[in-house]
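Title: Prediction job returns without error message
Component: structure pipeline
Severity: low
Priority: P3
Assignee: unassigned

Description:
Job completed but the reporter wants confirmation the result is attached to the right record. Sequence as submitted:
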Amino acid sequence: MLRYVLYQLRKSFKFNFFIGCQLFVTFLLCIAASSIITFNMKEYRCFSKYLDADGLFMQINGIELNYDRGQLADSKELEAVLKKSEVIATYGYVISYEDKLPKNSCETIAYDEEAIDMYKPELLKGKWLSDYSYDPSTKHIHAVLSSNAKNVEVGDVIKGVTHGDNYIYVEVVGILTPDATIWGHTSGMNEDDGDYSRMFMDMTFADPNKVTVIMNQAEIMEVKKTLNKDAYLDGTMDDIVLVRHQKTITDEEKEYNKKLIEEHAYVCFLDDMTNISKISKTRLLHSLTFFIPFAVVLFFTTLISSTSSSLIMMKRQLKNYAIYNICGLSWKQCAMINIMNIFVTSTVALTSSFVATYLFMTRRSVFNTTFLLTKNEIMVVSFVFLLYISLSVLFPIVTMKKYPARRVLSDNRR
């Protein structure tokens, strides 16, 4: 049977090539549409645990309960004074670096460990902070640097100087891409937006003269324990802080939490999380309203065209299948030849679309569209692949059952 399949493929090569091109475009459209949805939803979905919950969304420059205590230096301290709440935050540190980093031209920020696990920016090389844990034997703080750290390589250990000439050692584990999007450190970006995008900054808009150093807050806290008592390694809750209320919280406790923030934090922006979530979802949906209808129409047009072309090809080959039937092959075997023909053409088109997507993934391609190949894209394309094969196979099976071989040959003589 394989010999007949190869024969039919060779005999109808031009027609198969035309169908394959149509399918290639269909699969690529599906991947592009799914990629746009996945890409636009990725940042929101990463923090959905907080964004979809009842809580507070704030952008602050520190929070100070009283003068003697100073500013809160860790989210656990804020959780201790709030009622029934969980907190993740970003932190700012003042650290000077020796060796390969510019001494006074670095911005050091840190994330809570939960935030590190939630969101991973694009890396040029190396690994993200979530792949490392603190090692007490080395006392190294792992860090990911912005791409403008020209003289630094992954694996380098750099000495940092804190207040009082205390030293810490920073191990570089990753380098961000030039156009990476980072969380929490906004530098005034999207300051007019009252939605989730306020949390993020595209590194292409960062100060090119300053190197951004991103660390794990939990590792800094561990290193702090090893320093002298007079050593100063305290950061401040700087920029984005998310508060998630527990389900058992009362309205009075919510009001207490909000009032505490308003009175003791240096607030740049503060809103209820329900408002942020509502506005965010509305804007995400609006950003997709233009592309999705266009892609759906184009997708169905191409799919119908591909299926029709496949049916026309089958109709042209029906005479050959009738001859095979008279020569000893059953109609089921003839149908299997047609199915294998369709399967080979579809598989080649599918593989080509995956290869093209992989090439597009290296950079944002035409129309500033980001191509992705996650499980979402694979599931969508697999569904379309199976749908096309099912539609293309159904007609030949029905036709072959309805018309005997002699009738087919008789009709073709007329």
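Comment from assignee: result matches the submitted record. The mean pLDDT is 82.
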